[in-house]
Amino acid sequence: MVKRPWRKTQNQPRVISKTPPGHAFHFKRPRHPFNAVIAFLSARVFQLRIPTICHTEVGTLPNEPEDLQQARRTEASIMNKYLMQLRTEASVADSIVRECHMLSKQEHILEQIVSIEVGPSGDSWRAVVWLDSGIDLLHSVRGVNNPWTPPPKTRQWQTYFFPVIVHQVTANAISKQGSATNVPHLPSHGTPSTRIKGASDWKASQNVCFLPIHYGFQLDKDLACQDALYALSELFQFAASSEVQLLNCLQCHIEREVSFIGAVEGSSRRAASLMNLRYIKTILKKHAQRLAGTTCMLKSRDSLDWPRLGSSNKAEQTAKILLADFEYLLRRAESLARECEQGMATLANSAILEESRRSVDMGLRVEKLTKIATIFIPLSFVCSVWGMNFQEFGTGILPLWWFPVTAGPILLVSIFIYRLDHLLILVSKLKGI
């Protein structure tokens, strides 16, 4: 074994920082470069949620809360199968559904994502948009009984999607942009035919699929080439319109569940209404978080390295309108979530009141039973003492008047003991007077 020569190293000086007594040591943590990468990616790539309402005409809404727990568990398992099959059998241009929420047996909420990547500013920049909506949902990832397809034993026209209502171009705007012949026409197969009775082939007919066809018609082309947010403004407007439609639908369901408070009886119905409000609150919390992220991004527009034309009043006005829209959506989502919490608290309070009312009723019944027992227990005791040993019955030598003579005092003593608390309260009041 060869030993290496030992070298004496010079001791490095130690730096000792003196801190006042009672104070802890604080060290500055160096900024990790990964944090900067995350901030860079969040500024470059972001997502917008596009909810769509799917309605199925299966009967009428009942006049009581719907118990949807089992149906929601079944739908969750179906969505898991759909997502697993999506990984293996999805093709190019297939439409994708990220989440599906069951509000009632008639209405579902489908959520899709629009992913946007904005390139760095400079002489040339890019904006890439990925849509979850491609071909019709009927022809995407077949073989799974999806919640948005027409259920069995129903007609195809009874299942349809609500279109997202967005501000349309007026005649004046068309004349400013150019001739009416430049207006892009929707394809013939894309017209909403789901509500036409007798249609042979059911189609989802989401108007988000038409967004790439007529996108940018209302925009100023020269300004869109220089300002990224203005170029993407119609996409933000479409997402805001779909979010407004979702919040309107959720508000209707919240008002319906709250209207059952005090109108229905039974713990099972109250529990169903409570679970529905909790389910809606979960949806609102998720959307409020996403809206808060979008609002924060729009507020920090000055710090984003996006192409921007600061001298354009039109672009700045569009940015202010988008920020105001998403701030309103955020406030409304939070307000609806608070309404859900208030409804849940009211349901819990009504359950407590009903339980207390039931306890009071039970106490009154026990009080009546106690009054009856106060009379009959002493009488049964006297009967058990004397039995049948009376001359009148021919089985004894005692006269019958012994029974009332002994039963009367015992009954009076029992009543006195029963009313002793009331007598003590009465005596204390008389002493106070």
Please, could you describe this protein's structure?
With 433 residues, this protein is α+β, with helices and mostly antiparallel strands. It has 2 domains: 37-182 and 193-357, no CATH class; 387-432, no CATH class. Helix content is 50%, strand content 8%. It contains 11 helices and 5 strands. Strands 1, 2, 3, 4 and 5 form a 5-stranded antiparallel beta sheet that branches. Mean pLDDT is 76; it is low at 1-41 and 169-200.
Give a concise summary.
This protein has 433 residues and is α+β, with helices and mostly antiparallel strands. It is built from eleven helices and five strands. GO terms for molecular function: metal ion transmembrane transporter activity.
Mean pLDDT: 76
Could you give a short account of the major beta sheet? 5 strands, antiparallel
Whole-angstrom Rg: 38 Å
Poorly predicted sequence stretches spanning 5 or more consecutive residues: 1-41, 169-200
Q: Helical region count?
A: 11
Shape: elongated
Strand content: 5-15%
* Helical content class: 40-55%
Helix and strand content put the structural class at alpha+beta
Oligomer state equals single chain
Amino- and carboxy-terminal Cα gap: 110 Å
Present the secondary structure layout:
Layout: H1 33-44, E1 45-56, H2 69-89, E2 99-102, E3 107-118, E4 127-131, E5 159-161, H3 171-177, H4 211-214, H5 221-224, H6 228-231, H7 233-259, H8 267-299, H9 313-386, H10 402-418, H11 420-432
Antiparallel strand pairs: 1-3, 1-5, 2-3, 3-4
Pfam families: CorA
Membrane topology: Multi-pass membrane protein
GO molecular function: metal ion transmembrane transporter activity
